[in-house]
């Protein structure tokens, strides 16, 4: 396995914070990651998560949906005894795998959902998210800014989807991006409220998670993040993006592609199926 370079900040304050925040009096975070053929990247991500200022308060649970001996063995070699690795004999789908991992994590105050390609290079990132949620108790789903490996911004937040809007996005993927929703953060705002956020890196208070019974397993891979944000709004709660944290993604989205790609991409066909379920319900 090749050695990947990892950019680690020299952050003495984070080291000090780590010592101060050990103990049962500080919120506990269940960090949930569902892997699908990204073990190499995920191993880098785990190394960085272990350096977080709140690492002593975190329980990392990884579910491997790859059904691949190579992926499983790589993760087994790089998982620590205090972390949980669930090797699934079948691809459970995203929603089922996340809910399984949350149940396995035990009792925690916050749930952090992270995609296997996410690199959290700021050691205080998770601490910042917890602090913000403690100060803003009406936020039910909190996302952060993201950038791809090439430095380009990630479209984290969007308006609630409609059937025709999705058709337009698939017909002209570059012409219907919604990066403008995050523009307020570039103008000095710390946080903006949005319709929904993709679940590639989000923190959710456990009280809200339990109230809605986690992710809706009717959705196999996609739209569960849209649905949980919709339920947050329905309950008068907030969905938000913060500029206090900016994590790195690999830029490879399972749902990427236009209408023609649906015929050759199983992931896109599942996306279409999940989207139709959502539209019929909402």
Describe this structure in a few short sentences.
The chain has 10 helices and 10 strands. By secondary structure, the chain is an alpha/beta fold.
Estimated helix fraction = 25-40%
CATH class: Alpha Beta
Q: So, the CATH homologous superfamily?
A: Spore Coat Polysaccharide Biosynthesis Protein SpsA, Chain A
| Rg over C-alpha atoms, rounded to the nearest angstrom | 18 Å
> Widest sheet: strand order?
3-2-1-4-9-5-10-7
Report the sheet-strand fraction.
15-25%
SSE pattern: HEHEHEHEHEEHHEEEHHEH
Distance between the termini: 45 Å
Please, how many helices?
Answer: 10
CATH third-level topology = Spore Coat Polysaccharide Biosynthesis Protein SpsA, Chain A
What's the number of structural domains?
A: 1
**What would the principal axes of the Cα set say about the shape?**
globular
Biggest sheet character: 8 strands, mixed
Mean pLDDT figure: 83
Query: Which structural class is indicated by helix and strand composition?
Result: alpha/beta
CATH architecture annotation: Alpha-Beta Complex
Number of strands: 10
- Stretches where pLDDT is under 50 for at least 5 consecutive residues are 1-20
């Amino acid at each position: 396995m090749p050695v990947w370079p990892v950019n680690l900040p020299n952050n003495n304050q984070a080291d000090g914070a780590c010592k101060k925040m050990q103990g049962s009096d500080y919120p506990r975070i269940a960090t949930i990651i569902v892997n699908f053929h990204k073990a190499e990247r995920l191993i880098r991500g785990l190394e960085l998560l272990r350096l977080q200022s709140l690492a002593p308060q975190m329980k990392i649970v990884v579910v491997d949906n790859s059904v691949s001996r190579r992926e499983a063995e790589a993760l087994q070699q790089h998982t620590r005894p205090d972390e949980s690795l669930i090797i699934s004999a079948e691809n459970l789908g995203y929603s089922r795998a996340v809910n399984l991992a949350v149940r396995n994590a035990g009792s925690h105050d916050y749930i952090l959902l992270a995609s296997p390609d996410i690199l959290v290079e700021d050691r205080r990132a998770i601490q910042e998210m917890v602090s913000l949620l403690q100060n803003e108790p009406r936020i039910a789903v909190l996302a952060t800014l993201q950038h791809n490996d090439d430095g380009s911004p990630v479209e984290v937040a969007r308006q609630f989807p409609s059937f025709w809007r999705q058709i337009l996005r698939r017909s002209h993927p570059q012409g219907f991006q919604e990066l403008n929703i995050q523009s307020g953060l570039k103008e000095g705002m710390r946080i903006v409220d949005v319709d929904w956020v993709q679940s590639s890196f989000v923190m959710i208070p456990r009280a809200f998670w339990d109230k809605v019974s986690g992710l809706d397993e009717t959705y196999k891979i996609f739209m569960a993040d849209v649905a949980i944000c919709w339920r947050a709004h329905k309950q008068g709660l907030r969905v938000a993006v913060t500029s206090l944290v900016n994590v790195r993604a690999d830029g490879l989205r399972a749902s990427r592609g236009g209408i023609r790609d649906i015929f050759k991409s199983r992931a896109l066909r599942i996306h279409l199926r999940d989207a139709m379920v959502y539209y019929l319900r909402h």
